Amino acid sequence: MASILEHLLPFWLVAARVSGLFLFAPVLASRLVMRQVRVLLLVMLTVALYPAVAAGGIQIPPLELGTVALVLLGEVLIGLAIGMMATMPLVAIQVAGSVISYKLGLALAQVYNPEFDAQSEVIGQLLYLMGLGLFIQVGGLEHMVVAIMDTFATLPPGTAWVDVAPAQLMAALVDSAFVVGLRIAMPVLLLATLASLAMGVLMRTIPQINIMSIGFAIQIMLGMSVLVVSIFAIGDVASEAIVDGLGYVYDWARSLGVSDG
Known about the structure:
The protein is mostly helical. The chain has eleven helices and two strands.
C-alpha cells in the first residue's frame, strides 16, 4: 500500500496534463464521443504514459495544500495549450467556409455542429470535416500524444505553473490562422465580388433585366463551381497549415524546460 500511495500524486499530475487534450483537442474533445468513452481514453493514456514518465524518475518538489491546485491547473494548461494549438488550423478552415457562405448568401443554411455544440454554415461545416479528416490522416492525434510525452522530458510533473500558457505563441497562431482562412476563401470571394460588379454594371446598362431575381442564383453557382475546382488546392493549404501547427506544438513542448528554467 505504501508503494501505491507513493505513485498516487505523480499519477494524478500526469492525468491532469493529459486531460487538457480532452478539453479542446480535435476528436478527443468532440461531443460526438461519449463522456464515458473520453474518461476511459484519458485513463488508458495516463496508464500507458505513466510508466515511461516514472522510468525517468519523478522528483516532485514539496507542495503545500494551497499550491497543489495551482500545480494541477498548470498541468491542465499544458495539455489545453497543445489541444488549442492543434485545433487552430481547423478553426481557420471553418471560418473560411463561414465567410464563403456569407458572401454567397448561404448564411441562413445552417446545420448543427456537434464539435462546438453550435450552429454553423453548411460550407464551413463541410470544410471543417475535410480539415478534420486531413488532421487524422497526417496523424494529428498521435502527434499530440507524443508532444505531451515530450513535455514530461522538458518539464517534469509537479513543476508546471499557471504561467506556462503560451500567450505570445497563441497570438502568432491566430495571426497565421487568419492568413490560412484568407487563402482558402480568397478565390471564391474574388469571383463573387467580380460577379457582383458585373451584375451591377449590367443592371445599370440594361435596366429591363431583373438582375435581383437571377443574380443570387448565378452568384451561388459561380461560387460553388470555384469551390469545387479549387478543392484540391484548399486541401493542400489545409494540410500545410495542420502540419505547421503540429510543428509549433513540438517546438513549444520541447522549449518548456528552457523557457521555465
